[in-house]
Amino acid sequence: MQKVQNIFVPREEPIEMVTKTDLHSRIADDRMERVAAAAETVFVNEFTDGLLDPAKPMLGPVRDGGHVVANTAPGCWGPMITPAIRGGHEVTRPVAVAGAEVGDALAIRIKEIVVTSLATSSGNDQMMTGRFLGDPYVAGRCPGCGTLNPETRVEGIGQTAIRCVNCGADCSPFTITNGYTIAFDEIRSIGLTLHRNAAEQIARNAKSYAALPEKSVQNSILTFAPHDLVGLVARLRPFMGQFGTTPAIRMPDSHNAGDFGSFLIGAPHEYAITAEQLEDRTDGHMDIDIVRAGAIAVCPVKVKGGGIYMGDMHALQGDGEIAGHTADVSGIVTLQVQVIKGLTIDGPILLPIAEDLPYLAQPLSRAERSRAEALARDWGVEHLEESAPISFVGTGSDLNAATENGLARAARLLDMTVAEVKNRATITGGIEIGRHPGVVQVTFRAPVDRLDRLGLMPFLKEQYGLAE
């Protein structure tokens, strides 16, 4: 039986009978009803068709302070070889948060990330001419019958295994030029790239080794069995490549960022947007490796309820994701969410765990503070600025544009000039690459009084143990 959501209908009392006391009571009653309707924990095992669409119903709502637990599917490669998925990824259905209104922000604590895949495959991609309309991530097209976003089936293994259901043609929009199949140890601490025989053994039982969630429809990339790198050992450090809130307009999930999003401007397919509409993005597709267990992400609310979604879990990745792809895996993610009223931001703000901060951005130790106070006395400086680390995500068509975007976001929110932000990032932080070609982090120590006015200090104190 389908669950029927609560609908709140105002009382039909004559307006002259509603006193101020009655009105306050009614507002309180309505708030209590909404809180009662919100769940403590929302479990998610459903996925979108690759589109983030604010017009579609969300799961939840979860209460302010509640939890979301999601079984996520692999991100890039599986959906990329499944042209029926219209966004290049397969992210979870968004979850509404009770009380979240447009212009607020959501502080999302990443409590736990657990890799469930036993293996995955990845590598450099090659777009296949004639198999897409303008954008292979969004508009795959069968080269045999011309069907747009065709349904497919898997026939055998290897890079010609993805076949159109309508005509049987090989119709994957992508193939791998140099790739690998990597298996993980039992505790998901290391991975090992495999030879051909092992890769093909896994490919024949791809969905099981990928631990694909039951409602995932993607073709597993393990089917391709790439094996160019053999015997290479890599450390696992899982994080979320897709993590954030629903954009204000319908948008393919992998394009919810300034770099991939720029591909939509004037595109020949039905998901084309204007440059102005691209500002409605929320930059949920970050591929930033510090978005891992223990971090806090502060995300914009651009639709009522916020619409938290996630996916594209990566088992490991260096800064930049320079190969274009990494080890995409299935996994279990546990979050706790809190509404920050009135904090209007354009894109995500990250509060990474302390060890992930750039060296210059780390909070001062007591010994460093003591030495600074002595230096101030020597030079007659009466006041030492109280500061705390903060990281702004910037995205754009290239790394220069992304950096300018991150600097401008920081300046607007903190009421500084861009020149001041540049100085602070130079001497108390750094610019780090999230994803090449166009996602960066602008990290620096900012004045505590300004952060406090924004309502961020409770999270910074929690994250970094800052003194009262």
CATH architecture grouping of the largest domain: Sandwich
The total tally of domains equals 2
- Please tell me how large the radius of gyration is: 24 Å
SSE order, one letter for each helix or strand:
HEEEHEEEEEEEHHEEEHEEEEHEHHEEHH
Largest sheet: 10 strands, mixed
Estimated structural class: alpha+beta
CATH superfamily of the largest domain: Acetamidase/Formamidase-like domains
In the CATH scheme, the class of the largest domain would be Mainly Beta
Number of strands: 20
Poorly predicted regions: 1-35
Mean pLDDT: 93
User: Can you tell me the overall shape?
Assistant: globular
Q: What gap, in angstroms, lies between the N and C termini?
A: 51 Å
User: Could you name the CATH topology of the largest domain?
Assistant: Jelly Rolls
The helicity comes to 10-25%
Strand content: 25-35%
List the total number of helices: 10
